[in-house]
Amino acid sequence: MPIIINTIEEALKRLRSLNENNNQRIIIGIVGKPGAGKSTLTSYLLENLVKEKAVLVPMDGYHLSNKLLEEYEKADRKGAYDTFDARGYSELIKRIKSDSDSDIYFPIFHREIEESIVAEGVVLKECKVVLTEGNYLLLDNHGWQDVKSFFTESWYIQIDDDLRRERLMARSIRYGRSPEIAYKWTHGSDEVNAKVVETTMNNADVILAL
After folding, report:
1. Is residue 168 within 8 Å of residue 42, measured between CB atoms?
2. In this structure, what DSSP letter does residue 141 have?
3. CATH architecture of 3-209
4. Which uninterrupted H or E stretch holds 180?
5. pLDDT tens digits along 97-145
6. Would you list the DSSP string of 55-122?
7. What is the pTM of this model?
8. What are the domain boundaries of the chain?
9. What is the C-alpha R_g of the chain?
10. CA atoms within 13 A on the CB side of 150
11. Quick check: helix, strand or coil at residue 145?
């Protein structure tokens, strides 16, 4: 059964304890439905982990390009589990776990342009704590199945769905979608993806009931 944590302060305390009691690089996989607050949590953790030499590696950098999504006729499903380079992401996390002798570069996704920029992020060789967040880190098929084995721990964020959808709507509008399109995306594609993510909750080591 997953451990239950109720505050972000408890999450920080747990992460620091893991780091203090482990000589290896710590990798925490943070999972949640779209709009669950993954970015908010990771921002809080990073702000308080300066001396631990922490870095964030988002799964979103492995979005397939808009060009490929158009070619594969998946543009209207962008964000679904099969619209990412799952194997590429898995290999990145595997290398982060096993290679502490080299700086490791990774792509970062930008919502304002809806594309990723290659090698924009870096895990420095001296980095001790790596946070990685995304929707499908606990999925056990479609190329995602090996990812969990590379984590020190996996955390799943569980929050009220109405609040989550409100956040998604606001985020979509902030990045230029009309309220009508934002509503359609939030209650359409994003909701389908959310149901997939929900099926993976019991695969987590820790549930953050925030």
Report:
1. no
2. S
3. 3-Layer(aba) Sandwich (3.40)
4. helix 179-187
5. 999 999 999 999 998 899 999 999 999 999 999 999 999 999 999 999 9
6. EE--GGGGBPPHHHHHHTT-GGGTTSGGGB-HHHHHHHHHHHHH--SS-EEEEEEETTTTEEEEEEEE
7. 0.94
8. 3-209
9. 17
10. 21
11. coil
